[in-house]
Specification:
binds zinc ion, about 0% strand, single chain, 9 helices, mainly alpha, about 75% helix, about 300 residues
């Protein structure tokens, strides 16, 4: 009787210690999760703010690069009265709201495109941070998304994709991807990205050769950026991006022709759809590709 009492006492002490260690473990795990969530939250807010500032710079790029003007000097000015934009009137989105979308000097309306580009860049950056978390490939994708947004705006307005922007993006992305590959030992991803960029470039080069009227050389260059970025994520993303771009292009093109808002022989800004396809593949790829997970 006495020995069984002792063994029960020992057992209960053991179980108490197990419960205690479980409790400590789960508490430290909760603390860790909380810390992770806080870090991710800070990263998202930081990226959103960075996006707003980058968006303000993209507005300069979108206006000046296709017009072969410098993006450094002179300072931005009102296109109506030529008055220089003051520093305090250059705060992304906020200044546009405070000025009631009008020039401080001549009261000429300021296009909503400026705050829209800033907001969209902020949203894209925050979304990318939420999707990917912090890693060394994140800056490469922020660069890619910012560039695709600027190129889409220019292509939609002027039907050109300036090579300066495309090549600068490829160089910047190469730098970030090399850094990511070196630090995180992701050379396989880097290799697939390079193969992806080459494959897209070759395919688009042939398409341009076969029909330069419908696919300009700007799209061939842009294919480098898309193949590079999507290739880093995997070959399935390459196919998804390409498929989505053509699907969206076809839907919009057919709708515009059917509603007589576009002639059949009129080219569409294909770069916009390529950028859209790539963007959707980056953000929604993991979910859209679930049915194809078994494919290797
Ligand atoms: Zn003005």
């Amino acid at each position: 009787m006495a020995s069984s009492t002792i063994s029960i006492a020992t057992m209960s002490r053991e179980s108490i210690s197990i419960v205690c260690s479980d409790f400590t473990y789960s508490r430290s795990r909760t603390c860790q999760q909380k810390r992770k969530a806080t870090v991710l939250g800070l990263l998202i807010v930081g990226c959103a703010l960075l996006g707003l500032v980058v968006g303000s710079f993209l507005n300069v790029v979108i206006y000046r690069v296709p017009r072969h003007e410098s993006i450094v000097a002179p300072r931005s000015k009102c296109p109506n009265c030529q008055a220089p934009i003051l520093e305090r009137d250059n705060i992304p989105v906020v200044s546009w709201l405070l000025l009631h979308a009008k020039c401080r000097n001549c009261q000429a309306p300021i296009s909503a495109r400026y705050p829209m580009v800033e907001l969209m860049t902020g949203a894209l950056f925050a979304g990318a941070a939420a999707r990917m978390g912090w890693n060394w490939e994140l800056p490469a994708f922020l660069t890619m998304l910012a560039s695709l947004l600027a190129l889409s705006c220019i292509d939609a307005e002027l039907m050109v994709l300036p090579l300066k922007i495309v090549y600068t993006t490829v160089v910047m992305m190469s730098g970030w991807f090399l850094l990511a590959a070196g630090i995180d030992h992701e050379w396989r991803k880097f290799l697939i990205a390079v193969i992806g960029a080459s494959a897209w470039f070759a395919l688009f080069f042939l398409l341009n050769f076969a029909s330069p009227r419908y696919l300009g050389f700007g799209d061939v260059r842009l294919a480098l950026v898309l193949g590079f970025g999507l290739g880093w994520l995997g070959w399935r993303y390459e196919l998804l991006g390409f498929f989505l771009a053509n699907l969206l292009g076809a839907i919009v093109g057919v709708t515009l022709i059917a509603t007589k808002r576009m002639r059949r022989d009129q080219p569409i800004p294909y770069g916009v759809f390529l950028a859209l396809g790539a963007g959707i593949a980056i953000f929604a790829g993991p979910e859209l590709l679930i049915p194809f997970q078994s494919l290797r």
